[in-house]
Amino acid sequence: MPITKLSRPNRQSGPWLVLAAAVLWGTTGTAQAFAPEGAQPASVGAVRLVVGGFTLLLFAIVRGAFRGQKQWLSSATVTAAVGIALYQLCFFAGVARTGVAAGTIVAIGSAPIFAGLLGLPVRGERPGWRWGIATALAVLGCAFLIADSGEIRVNLSGILLALGAGLAYATYALASKGLLEKQPPEAVMAIVFCLGAILLFPVLVTSNLNWITIPRGLGVALHLGLVTTALAYIFFARGLRLIPVATAVTLSLAEPLTAALLGLVVLGEQHTPLAFLGIGLILSGLLLLSANPLNQRVF
After folding, report:
1. Number of H helices, E strands in the chain
2. In 3D, which of 88, 107, 81, 83 has the Cα closest to residue 160?
3. HSE of 82 in the Cβ direction (CA atoms, 13 Å)?
4. Distance between the two ends of the chain, CA-based, in angstroms?
5. 292 neighbors 128 (Cβ within 8 angstroms)
6. Residue whose C-alpha is closest to residue 287's, from 129, 107, 130
7. Phi, psi of 68 (to 5 degrees)
8. Would the pTM count as exceeding 0.90?
9. Of 160, 190, 194, 245, which is most buried with the most CB atoms under 10 A?
10. Which tens digit of pLDDT belongs to each residue from 173-228?
11. Angle between helices 232-240 and 14-25 (to 10 degrees)
12. String of b and e for 186-219 (b: at least 16 CB within 10 Å)?
């Protein structure tokens, strides 16, 4: 399946596809809140990757995405798979040590910075002033959301693990971008996530998975695998193919924005004016970046 040159209108859809993916990712925390007792974060992450990865594989086969595609076992494929697997492990381990609040802001907030720093030497992408301002606004907004929760616990090893998660995610995005320039997005995501699932298989077989046998637990697993992984990463891959990596990773900060709004509406969480200021800053950053998503250079 040859990848044809994309037209200008299609390129403009890139940021909206990434934003759609981030909105779906933002439902992860709410879904986990409904998981039965005994559902450990590591096992939830592994199950999510396995269900999502093999769903993507089935979808890619049905779509004929592998037809005519060869040489999948490349350094970029392995790098992307290792990146997405390490993200799961580092993120959940970091959150366990330093708390959900600090772990989330360090991991999610550092990913756009790593992507911007690595984008130039790896791909020659130079984030512009608009990306810098948008990223600063969004990361500051995330910090306000975390401060509102009151759950800030500093742990050096936890912070380092969360930073590792941010670096792993940026690495995954950079490696995937190179693959998406040559291969169909469905096929790329299927291969990368299936390899990632295989890497996490030891975690899966050593975890207590009794929670999946409960109807509510099965529903959570299916939502995380089908919606927040398979569907979300199809959107993300299609969007990432059209815009710079640093832009895509910054737009992913719509995830905590969605999570905060769902916590307010669905879970009945109470937020202070500081949280609403954070929501406004994140939204401002995303709107600023979406207004000119293809901007890569400074003045």
Report:
1. 15, 0
2. 107
3. 11
4. 38
5. no
6. 130
7. 80, 0
8. no
9. 190
10. 999 998 988 888 889 999 999 999 898 888 888 888 889 999 999 999 999 999 99
11. 150
12. bbbbbbbbbbbbebbeebbeebebebbeeeebee
Query: Residue 290 and residue 299: Cα distance in Å, rounded?
Result: 18
Q: Each residue of 243-295: pLDDT tens digit?
A: 888 888 888 888 777 777 776 776 666 667 777 788 788 888 877 777 654 44
Supply 37's token pair: 């007792």
pLDDT at 268: 63
With 0-12 / 13-18 / 19 or more C-beta atoms within 10 angstroms meaning exposed / middle / buried, residue 165 is buried
Q: What pLDDT digit, counting tens, does each position of 4-51 carry?
A: 343 444 667 888 899 999 889 888 777 777 788 877 777 887 888 899
* Residues in CB range of 105: below 8 A, 6 or more apart: 139, 142, 143, 145, 146, 256
- Alpha-carbon span 53 to 212, nearest angstrom: 17
Q: Where are the domains of the chain?
A: 12-29+44-291
| Secondary structure, 3-state, 26-77 | CCHHHHHHCCCCCCCHHHHHHHHHHHHHHHHHHHHHHHCCCCCCCCCCCHHH
Nearest to residue 89, comparing CAs of 49, 119, 139?
49
The residue written with tokens 């992507």 in the block is 115
Extract the tokens encoding 223.
């939502």
Two structure tokens written together for 224: 């995380």
Q: Tokens for 49?
A: 């990757």
